[in-house]
Specification:
Strand order of the largest sheet: 3-2-1-4-5
Helix content: 40-55%
Strand content: 25-35%
Radius of gyration: 14 Å
Number of helices: 8
Largest sheet: 5 strands, mixed
Shape: globular
Distance between the termini: 14 Å
Oligomer: single chain
Structural class: alpha+beta
Length: 142
């Protein structure tokens, strides 16, 4: 098990045990605070890219995550059949995904589907909505 897997497993346990109303505070209280928790979630997400599904395609998913500390931005860049995660804004993003922290956490742990999040208005998309479907195509589920 990698350090990313170990850190994510601990974080996922906390996410599953914490109600939405207390999730921001619980993640902020952890080692490194909210930014470290988000870095762990995005590193885990990046590790789930499936090169056989990507097949030479590329693109950038930009996230705007609403938290008690304000909006946090992260991105996932898929290129050369790999994925890298980062902090901040990527001006070349193909799609921007607006989502609350609790909903992102539920998506990351499989407690909420992307389709349900979108249909219920818990996830907002800006940009190439068809590219957004690549999340379900390029990435494995835990």
């Amino acid at each position: 098990m990698t350090d990313v897997d170990t850190g994510y497993a601990r974080l996922a346990t906390l996410i599953r045990a914490t109600p939405d109303s207390g999730l921001d505070a619980a993640l902020a209280a952890g080692p490194g605070g909210l930014d470290t928790a988000l870095d762990t979630v995005f590193a885990h997400m990046a590790s789930l890219v499936d090169p056989d599904r990507v097949k030479g395609e590329k693109g950038v998913f930009q996230y705007e995550i609403t938290t008690d500390e304000g909006v946090k931005t992260r991105w996932l860049r898929v290129e050369n059949d790999t994925c890298v995660a980062g902090r901040g804004t990527d001006d070349g993003a193909d799609i921007t995904i607006g989502i609350r922290l609790a909903d992102l956490a539920r998506l990351a742990t499989g407690q909420l589907s992307g389709q349900r999040a979108f249909v219920t208005g818990r996830m907002k998309l800006k940009g190439n909505a068809m590219f957004g479907l690549k999340l379900g195509q390029w990435f494995r589920r835990d």
